Amino acid sequence: MNTKPLKAYEVREDFDGYVCIVFATNSATARREGAAELDADWESIDYCRRLPWADEYAGVKGGVPPLVCIEHGWWFKCMQCDCHIDSDLEGEDEQGNYVKLEPVEEGRAIYCSQSCKDKRDNEKSNRNLAFEAFKKSVQEKRPDLTFTEFTGGWPWLTMEGRFTFTGSKYGGSARDQHGDGNIQWFIANGDKAAWDEYEAKREGGAAC
User: Fold this and answer.
1) Does 139 map to a domain?
2) Could you list the residue range(s) of the whole structural domain that residue 199 is in?
3) Which of 40, 108, 118, 132 is most buried, taking the most CB atoms under 10 A from its CB?
4) Please, which domain of life does this record's source organism belong to (predicted)?
């Protein structure tokens, strides 16, 4: 069975001017898929037009590399410092001095320099390490609880561990909402009475 080749389309959302590249067999499909990627509706799309130079990236994981887009007139912001990156590869440092940019890409992300990428990588690593420490901490503080789910780590700042306890219907959660090590404990409204009873029976009667 013959399959129509995928072609690249540039889809632009009208309200904020966000743009994406999608691959489709026709413009109607590209417009619909582009609208979905931009979290917009059909009527909010300013235009959907062919992008022949990007056709070769159809089916490539990650899509069109940012540096290739820049070569064709696009621009991006550094994922770390928001520096404007375009084909001139020029920018300013924090003191307003001219600098020559040496952009580094990682998948669909781009950084104005290896230094900025290293900073972001360190932030990711530290955030993930903090999440692992959070999980260990809450389980050590309350080994009597049954932790059922953890959320956190990069890119989230808030860390949460959901738990149940004997007699609970809904359970509760332990949260570090600002990533500063301050853990707060919450119980679902429907389990307040069950929690009070559980804590009263728990050896030592220590409450969270």
Assistant:
1) yes
2) 127-205
3) 40
4) Bacteria
What is the pTM (predicted TM-score) of this model? 0.77
Name the nearest CA neighbour of 63 among 34, 86, 39: 34
How far apart, in Å, do the first and last CA atoms of the chain sit?
64
What is the CA angle 166-170-173, rounded to 5? 90
Q: pLDDT by residue (tens digit) across 186-197? A: 999 999 999 999
pLDDT > 90? residue 109? yes
- How many Å apart are CA 48 and CA 60, to the nearest integer? 21
115, 149, 177: which is the final residue of a domain?
Answer: 115
Tens digit of each residue's pLDDT (9 = 90 or more) over 56-70: 999 998 899 999 999
Q: Which two tokens stand for residue 203?
A: 């050896």
Domain boundary among 115, 141, 164: 115
Please state the domain count of the chain. Answer: 2
